[in-house]
Amino acid sequence: MDDLLSEFLTETGEGLAVLDVELVKLEKNPNDQELLSNIFRLMHTIKGTCGFLGLPRLESVAHAGENVLGKIRDGELAATPEAVSLILECLDTIRSLLVTLEETEAEPEGDDSDLIARLNAFAEGGGTMQAAAAAESEAAAESEAAAEADAEAAAQMPPIPEPASDAVEAAEAAEAADAPAVEQPAEEIVAQSAETAVTEEAAAAEEPVAAPNTQTPRSTRKEAKEAKESAKESKGSSIANQSIRVNVDLLENLMTMVSELVLTRNQLLQILRSQKESEFAAPLQRLNHVVSDLQEGVMKTRMQPIGNAWAKLPRIVRDLSIELGKKIDLVMKGADTELDRQVLELIKDPLTHMVRNSADHGLETPEERVAAGKPETGKIILNAYHEGGHIIIEISDDGRGLAVEKLKKKVLENGLATEAELESLSEQQIQKFIFKAGFSTATEVTSVSGRGVGMDVVRTNIEKIGGTIELSSTEGKGTVFTIKIPLTLAIVSALIVECGGERFAIPQISVLELVRTRADSEHSIEHISDTPVLRLRNRLLPLVDLRELMKLNPPHRPQSDDGEEDPKAHSIGADNFIVVTQVGSYTFGIIVDRVFDTEEIVVKPVARILRDNQMFSGNTILGDGSVVMILDPNGIAAATGEVQLAEENSDVMAERHAARREELTAMLVFRAVDESPKAVPLGLVARLEEIDLSKVESSNGQNVVQYRGQLMPLVQMEGAKPLAKEGRQPVLVFCDRDRTMGLIVDEIVDIVEERMNVELTSQRPGFVGSAIIGGHATDIVDVAHYLTIAFRDWFGGEPVDSFDTEKQTRILLVDDSPFFRNLLSPLLSVAGYDVTTVESASAALQLCEQGETFDVIISDIEMPGMNGFEFAEAIKQDSRWADVPLVALSSFATPRDLARGRAVGFRDYVAKSDREALLTSLHETLAEIRGAA
Amino acid sequence: MTRKNSTESERSSPGLGGAEETQDFVTFTIAKQLFGIPVLKVQDVLASYQITRIPLAPPEIMGSLNLRGRVVTAIDMRARLGLPPREDGAETMSIVVEHDGELYSLVVDAVGEVLALPFSAFDRNPPTLDPAFRAFSDGIYRLDDQLLVVLDVNRLLDYGRSEAA
Questions:
Q1: Residue B52 touches partner A, C-beta closer than 8 Å
Q2: Distance between alpha carbon A191 and the CA centroid of its chain, in Å?
């Protein structure tokens, strides 16, 4: 059944029940104004909803009833028993109509004009004694007429499903009017009407037969009554009573208590664990299971399908489409995806707003759409699904997308950024401006949206519940918003940290990663005029010192005995943990002393006295019984100054930069053998380790060490001193598939992001050349050289020879393995090519769409998603790159592969390991092209 | 809940002053001064308890503690009444009261006994009383050997709202 309808039935059923009681009360206290207005309101609501759902028969009956009530409320009529019974009669009619509505999902045909006439007459006549008397006689006369009319109507339209109760009523009325009554035994009606509630239409279709067959007179009144009662009973078992409404507070209370129970159970289990043998073990185990089930069950009571939040959308979209003159098709997927009702309430409005936005701003008018070669009807798709403890809601439209140029103009107009700032931003970053306050792209402010309070409110609301919102938009093709929200707010997974002797909980959802910092390690906290920052994978991570923020005591550390020092130097000690936290797209680190594990916690609101502190989102009781405060990353971000949009999402920016334009490559700078700095592309390094030299063994003339359950060959750079017997030595670990190699170095210096521009081609084996990194001439180490030392079969190729410099030929390298991308990129760059790398065929095709041009494309064959052959076909079929020569790269180069490669358009087929062959092939391919040109 | 009712009756009863009627008070001392709060307000009396400090909280908030699964906010009564802080390591006791649906633990120096006090011994606050006391005191009971200040829990704990607002 339609959700809206079933909700209406439940609600109206409840309303009617209340009305019955209230009307009876009214009869006793006819002058109780409060009671009267409540009754009037209830009736009015019923009428209103009937009208809304397009149920004219119900509406007209309710309207007439409301009329009378209105008069009574206004004091024009007295609430006499006659009036009350009339209204009760009206309610009964409504009820009987509802029964049919529930069974057949359609309003029964029929006529209520007599009841309405009486109600109206009463409203006009003023409910005096005469009127009452008249009404009585009238009622008798009319009930006769009604019976006739009903019977007639039923006889005339036998195939139309008539409700069981209607039939019963007709029978009753007919009997009262001394008319022939039902032939069919009442028991059968009983059985059928009981059935109808379950089987709906089937029984209902049979029903009308009963009415017209009016042969047997005087069927017993008792039976008819029974039938009516059973009809009532059957209704009792139907939808209206399948669910009960429970006060939300009650559920919340239940939830809290269950949460406490869970915590208590955890404590018990913890105690149990510390005891070897306990007679409590078995019962506790049982308790454990029961509590888990109970928790799940109670959680379920709070879960509601997201469709509830969507129920109103079709109508909104329908109204919008009329108002805006657009054709809109709303598609809703995953409406039965369940989430906590608290969360549901909170996202209801943002969702509605976003759908409005899509309809108003996103979709074009039919003319525009046709002109753009799109179907006339625009589509808005809502899609919800679960993904690892989160619910993902996508709102997409196939409209015009976000116009970056228009956005830029708007940004400038609103003074949100300067032109120079805009220049440096990616399209996606510019699109993100729509989440800023006071930003609306619609040129005209319509009644629908564009009031300037829009996406920023949506974003704030979603982030408030620990969710994120992202957008991706292609101009002319449409926009997709992706909302990610936690399933429930009641129990959250939290990371327990310690700072200044106090423990805090940080919601796991906002924690990206943990970084341990030490003064002497790769990660150490640096300061820019007292502002702590951390270099993390080539990005500067702003840090928030929790101790300072919370004004906590300096750490009680045994080492800090060196007298009076700057408290700040103290506070950020040598050994800290950074909790990398994300709020929206702003990433920052929180400095803490220690990190414990994660715990499921029940969020409890903080005392009112503390509620104005934004740093805390609540408090909780941990498994060990202690109270801890829950940090609110949103509040911390706000308190420490959320950075501007321009700095936001530097991840994306970094990726984009890496993808094109500057081709920044992160280099790991280290020292080995001598003082001159050496570097390898960071991407090649799997891990940085420190090995214990006493663990180094010799196998087959090679130094090896046991590493993660494998023997890892250790290689030293040429000219290095033999390894010491003990002590610790840093090692760069290189991995490819299942093989691992360690390169022993003296010291790891730094990680620098540089434009990979190898200046000199080195003639020395083991080096690919040198580049200026961090202002120093740095030797770029040829990892491949050492790999071949470690594993002779790793490549099988010869060390690279220098190659004639090509004139900045642009090469696109498509390979899913970062290892090979990073390996080949410097190699090709050394050979004088301008190399762009992408990790997948689809990324490459995107570049093609963006209008990039290349002289040669080198593509891997075995790739996830689109493989090399398919990629070649896609390019050759229709793209601007159809004429660009393709070179295939593969670990296997059998003649069959070769043939297939050539068939789809690869000019050459090179084994991955054979670098020389690759260079030769490139050389030849280009020569061929140029020769041909 | 019965809480509200009891609050009302307590408030009105001293004023009504039935001749031989008495009211029960939990007595406690802070800085050698005897105080009392109506016994019906008191949920619990605790000896020393593990308290979690709450950073950035007002100075009189000592922290929060777990009382049978409920989070209780501990309030240092000395700070609240503007009295000098107690010496480090001094023993404390707590009186747990409920206010506006939340539990608070009033940290005092020592909790005494429950006294049934006749209304005849009740006096209004002397106008010269320390404003910090007068703000939270309902009046004074004259005991044989000393005076007992009746504290109004509602006013004592309502400050959070008025000050935060």
A1: yes
A2: 49
